[in-house]
Amino acid sequence: MSEARHTAPTSVVIGALGAIRSAVIPAAAIAFSGIGDGGRFWVAAAVAAVAVTIGVVTSYLGWRRLTYTVSEADIRVESGIFSRAARSVPFERIQDVSLEAKLLPRLLGLVAVKFETGAGGGDDLALQYLTTADGERLRQLVRERREDGAAMVAAAEPAGDAPEQDSGEVLFAMGPRRLFTFGLFEFSLAVFAVLGGALQYIDDVSSIDVWNVDLWYRWLKEQGSTVATLGPYAQALGAAAGLIGLLLVGSVTGVVRTVLRDWGFTLTRSARGFRRQRGLLTQTDVVMPAHRVQGLVIGTGLVRYRLGWHGLSFVSLAQDSESASHVVAPFARMDEIAPIARSAGFRLPDAATDWHRASKRHRTDRAIIDSSVFVIAAGVTAAFAPFGLFLIPLGMAVIAVAANLYAWEFRRHAIDDAQVYASHGFASPTLGVATRLKLHSAEIVQGPIARLRGYASVHLGLAGGAFAMHGVPLAEARALRAAVLETITATDFSRLDAAPQAGAQTLNSAQPGFSSNFLAT
């Protein structure tokens, strides 16, 4: 595939339909306004026709002038109708190749091919659109040429380090029942944002000024007068019905958003890495090479944590829908997360993990700082407000102190021969796990109070994410930094991407001087 190729010709249809959709709003605004008086509908039709024509012509010319070339070393995309731009991305810079099919392109048998380069945002490369078969072939071809260097390194390794055969093992999947349960925890009031957009549209195309404060004030006053005529029980029932309605709308919205995003969620593991497929209207197909996984993040929520539900994400060099991590098990039990972590070459903490909590001085300082605002507010209230009101901010200060004391139980860190761990949060704890071989730097950070009190934050450089341990006693922080720097010094980073994860851990265990109890020394 060394010659220049065009994307699928039917992609012009997508651009034409987009032009029609863009022409609807201005045409409707003209049709319902006073522009042109009696002939405003003809004006609206003319504006729509011109906009659609320009859109179709632009879409066709853009398709004709867009070509892509896959060479032995890179992929090159040339685009632009009048001003030409050519971008080449070497295969070794491509972190991930994913396929995305929104509803309309999928109906036409088209997919968007996205090349994650680690640059993030608009700096990533995308081809819109190819046929599904061409998209699969292009992803496979780019993946093979990306791994040519790794294959050459693997060929030089002992036979025992040869990569496994493509098994396509399903590691995690969510059916309709699991999706519905997950959606109930994804409470969302995004529907009100949609209603706000609809009100803005009404304001644009009609004479009703929906943002007129007096209009809403008169309506609320009328409704308030009606409610005032009801008895206290009817008012209480009305308030309860309103609250239940709000909860119902938020729950239904959460379920709908979850089903649309995660329908058919499947995570499989093959010799090439992890493959995640999901989506109802917009289907995505993402492949994450195992050696590109930099770390794990296991998160949860306030309620779901109490019921044993967690979410697993891979910290990767590539981004996932503008998120820093790839979600691979959004709603799972810990016994479902553990095999996924093992398949990625990570080990979750267990009873033998040597956990260390943050400094008690850090705990005390956080409690004092967080409660001081409420203590000051209590003093001001006691001096100028009616007697007894100062108890409210004073009670908040007590709650802030209690919350910090309780949170200290969950603010902890650990390190062993192969990995580092950090946990924080008491209402919805989050656990981070990173491989020592993938860390790039170690930094000790101290503010004025931390310097006086003898503790610090340890920031570990992790490609594609952040890893930090807060409130670490200074002696432990220095020991942590020394151990991580020892690993960094002993690691040949030019071979990391080529080496399998298991082989990397074997290399790590062979490094001298690593002890899980080093913090006690």
TrEMBL record:
Ranges where the YdbS-like PH domain occurs: 63-140, 412-482
Entry-linked InterPro entries: UCP026631 (IPR014529), YdbS-like_PH (IPR005182)
UniProt key word RNA-binding: no
Transmembrane segments: 12-35, 41-63, 179-202, 236-260, 367-384, 390-408
Record bears the keyword Membrane: yes
Keywords for the protein's UniProt record, in alphabetical order: Membrane, Transmembrane, Transmembrane helix
Protein name, UniProt field: YdbS-like PH domain-containing protein
Organism whose genome encodes this protein: Erythrobacter neustonensis
